Amino acid sequence: MNKKHWFFLVVGFCFIILFGYTDYSPKVFKWWTGTSMFPVLFIIPIFGFLVDKNIKFAPLEIIGKASYNIFLTQMVYYCYLYGKIKETFGNIYLNTVVSIAICVIIGIIFYEIENRITKKVTAKVINQA
Question: What are the distances in angstroms from CA 27 to CA 10, 11, 21, 42, 50?
Fold first, then answer.
């Protein structure tokens, strides 16, 4: 990694620590969240390194392909199920692991089902044209 990557890594990491683990609340924007541009700086060097080295990791590729479906699953999960999971497991770390596992697994299953349906529908439409 070059100096620019290290700079991005440090800035993103510091922002995540500062925003997520302290009472710091930046006054840059009125509606600032932890998912703003600064935490992304933490991921850019890691992503750049993986692309430069052409490192492939099949589980991450599957998660990447299913990312929109995982996002939709998270929307439903946090709206309807998270409260029940939170009550079941009192530990915040266990809640986090269970929540991630549920959303990723169901999101990937959702992606696979949706992908098969889309292929069948597309094939029918193309054959009818």
Answer: 21, 17, 17, 21, 34
- Does residue 106 contact residue 81 with C-beta atoms inside 8 Å? no
3 state SS of 56? coil
Helix (H/G/I), strand (E/B), else coil: 54 = coil
Give the predicted TM-score (pTM) of the model.
0.62
pLDDT tens digit string along 23-40? Answer: 766 665 555 555 556 566
Lowest mean pLDDT among 44-48, 77-81, 89-93: 44-48
Identify whether the C-beta of residue 41 lies closer than 8 Å to the C-beta of residue 11.
Answer: yes
**DSSP character string of 22-80:** SS----SSTT--TTSHHHHHHHHHHHHHHHHTT---HHHHHHHHTHHHHHHHHHHIIII
Please work out, in degrees rounded to the nearest 5, the angle formed at the alpha carbon of residue 108 by the alpha carbons of 91 and 127.
Answer: 165
Give me the phi and psi of 82, to 5 degrees please: -60, -40
